[in-house]
Amino acid sequence: MKIVCISGSPRKNGNCITMMQEIVNIAEKANAEIQNINLNQLNYKGCQACMSCKTGKEDCVLDDDLKDVLTAIKDCDVVALASPVYFGEVTAQMKGLIDRMYAYLVPNFKTAETPGRIAPGKTVICILPQGQPDEKMFGDIFPKYDNFLKFMGFSNTHLVRACGVMEAGAVKNREDLLEKVRSIAQNIIQ
Q1: What is the mean pLDDT of residues 106-111?
Q2: Which of the residues 89, 109, 142, 159 has an alpha carbon 20 to 30 A from that of 125?
Q3: Which H or E run includes 26?
């Protein structure tokens, strides 16, 4: 099993990394192949709307640090996307990746029976820590991206929201959240 863990956090040891480490620990016990990616350390652009991925190419034609990330996502079984919530949205780092995932859609995606280029059966674990403790705030983030991910071809999606964890490492004191991540990972990774 191949697992790709992608952090959109600018913090090297923040809540995203702490929560994803729970996935990595379980994956290591299962002898899974693991790739960790920190988007903040990469050099890339957002989607340039060139439409090359819809007019002859099946992959994004931009030749930057996201090229290998996009390939890794296509080649893995499980992808964990973790981003803190900044100003009611995923970070700019994560949004840039998500926009580039537009290349995963076939040219006629609006009418195609199978609009995505992602092989069926792939799983996404989405981790969204936020400083705001009110769970009613920013609950609209995942449903929006969940629709896009399923449209691209990801079959199984899971969400872990961590509300009220503002400071780096605050999630370490939230066993309920860490256990939720572990439970999801244990059910997926075999």
Answers
A1: 95
A2: 109
A3: helix 15-29
